Amino acid sequence: MKCKKLNFIIISLILVITFVYVFRVDGAKGLWEALTAASPVWLGAAVGLMGIYWILEALILHLSVKQFHPFQPFRNSLQTAMIGQLFNCITPFASGGQPAQVLHMGRAGVPAGSCACALTVKFVVYQFVLTVYSSVTLLFKFADFSDEIHGLKYLVLAGFAVNTAVIMGLLCICFGRKGTEKFLESIIRFFSWMKLIRNPEALYSSMKSQTALFYNSFSAIRKDKRLLAKMGILSAVQLTAYFLIPYTLLRCFHVKPDSIFSMLVAQAFVLNVSSFVPLPGAAGGAEYSFHTMFAMFFPVQLLALAVLLWRIVTFYLPICVGTAFLWNGAKRQNKIKCVL
Hints:
Blueprint: H1 2-37, H2 40-66, H3 74-90, H4 97-107, H5 112-149, H6 152-175, H7 177-193, H8 200-221, H9 225-243, H10 245-252, H11 260-274, H12 285-293, H13 300-339
């Protein structure tokens, strides 16, 4: 509970700091004039791209889960995806999304091993596509950006290295069954030694059965090349939709960039930098990297407002929508319990 409160305090504090910064830079009058002059169509397009990102997130998850739980309705996959978005935003390194999704799917009747496998396969595909995407952007545009972003270029490379290490670690887990089982056994023994587990034998037995289910499921899904290709293509479209949000915000202020691809690359770099900021939603790091990367695209008088709007669309909006899905899901489960 204390950790949750701290995360919300950090998120709220960053929002307040961003608002204060915008008001100090632009002033209330300048801010109001910029907002009233903004194009509602392009602002709606930014929100629409975020909506496309969520729909594709749910669809990719649905394709993965359906392999193990054929009767999974898309509505459940959408709810699970949005709950994941919420907990990704409010936990450091986006670490809370997948555990929350496993818990939610488990309550819907999906076995834990199948949940873990479906989410792992989805995450491996996403990380692979992100790594390829980042490699392409680094190859074609890093030299052009490095002179403009100065010290931040090393953080971009560090973020790329982190994402590459993540996918390598995931592949080691997926293809190293014995090592994974030994690691989990050592964790159970440690918690048993610490007297934190009442029945280690039962937990060990459950772990063995769920890991067997995980690896059997993974063995089946990795043979379905068509499914993996479909998930990969959808992940590429999903990332492109997300990376285009700054472009719509720029057009919102009636400014046309020289290169849409350059803006897409800048957002990819922002994501790389944000990936290793150890705060909920990469708080602080995301704002700073966006401000630095997009200073070459946005007019100086609009840059602070652009940071605020981008953060609202890509961070605070997912928190609000994800909370609504979580609340609605809890409400439905309570109704089911009452009927039973």
